[in-house]
Amino acid sequence: MKGELDSVDLAILRELQNDARLPNKDLAARVGVAPSTALERVRGLRARGIITGFRAEVDVSELGRPLHALLALRVRPHTSQLVEPLRAFVLGLPETIALFHTAGPDDFLVHVAVPDADHLHRLVLEKFLVRQEIFHLQTTLIFRTEHQPIQRPAT
């Protein structure tokens, strides 16, 4: 971990994960410190790489991509010469939500969001299975996604 976090740091992280647009004076009031302290603590958390950014959460279903799936990929040979181009390819696809490089039987899990089953079918056949390094692909539909909204340090 990038240094110890005290109770004020943890409170700031909790509040900003709930509402990243929270004004500094409101943040300070909620965690019980002066606004200057809150500002300095947030700057410190960013400088240490604990806060990596502030983003809008977007519901891709509202953008016409309601069908989510996980694509489990196995590649051969598993070398950096193949892994890096595959990684760049997958992250360049507009359907990609997330890419996980994994250990175990599958080398990658790709979370995709698409308009419908036909689009998913074409994506698998025309984008993934034409790549020679992919020797196995398994598709799993996602019925529901739930996120843990607040990330806490390991105890």
3D architecture notes:
This protein is of the alpha+beta class and 155 residues long. It folds into two domains: 7-47, Arc Repressor Mutant, subunit A, CATH 1.10.10; 60-142, 2-Layer Sandwich (Alpha-Beta Plaits), CATH 3.30.70. The chain contains five helices and four strands; from the N terminus they run αααβαββαβ. Strands 2-3-1-4 form a four-stranded antiparallel beta sheet. The chain is elongated.
Task: Please tag this protein with its features.
2 domains; alpha+beta; 5 helices; Alpha-Beta Plaits; 155 residues
Summarize the structure.
Pfam families: AsnC_trans_reg, HTH_AsnC-type. With 155 residues, the chain is of the alpha+beta class. The protein contains five helices and four strands, in the order αααβαββαβ.
Give average pLDDT, whole number: 93
Q: What is the CATH fold-level name of the largest domain?
A: Alpha-Beta Plaits
Helical/strand content category: alpha+beta
Unreliable parts: none
Give the count of helical stretches. Answer: 5
- Under CATH, the homologous superfamily of the largest domain reads Lrp/AsnC effector binding domain/regulation of amino acid metabolism (RAM) domain
CATH architecture of the largest domain: 2-Layer Sandwich
Strand segment tally: 4
Q: What's the CATH class label of the largest domain?
A: Alpha Beta
The proportion of residues forming helix, as a percent range, comes to 25-40%
Radius of gyration: 20 Å
Strand order of the largest sheet: 2-3-1-4
User: Could you state the oligomeric state of the chains shown?
Assistant: single chain
Total of domains:
2
